[in-house]
Amino acid sequence: MTAVEFDAELDACGLFCPEPVMMLHNRIKDVAPGKILRVIATDPSTTRDIPRFCQFLGHELVTHAEQGGRYIYLIRRGA
Length: 79
Fold this sequence. Notes:
By secondary structure, the chain is of the alpha+beta class. Helices cover 27% and strands 33% of the residues. The chain has two helices and four strands; from the N terminus they run E-H-E-H-E-E. It has a four-stranded mixed sheet with strand order 1-2-4-3, covered by helices on one side. The chain is globular, with a radius of gyration of 11 Å.
């Protein structure tokens, strides 16, 4: 994963569906439009849920990767 700067972070490690997406839904509101939120999770279901969350709510999934059993997402908040 290339080094991309982010403006805020959400650590959802150890949480299981639907908690990571529920936390993401609340946390993204604290990020200004156009800024990037980094999400770190351990639940494999986030590989399905977070891209759908972004698609349905108009946020950009900038990048995602798996590193050592952790899933890392960079999300640019939409308008």
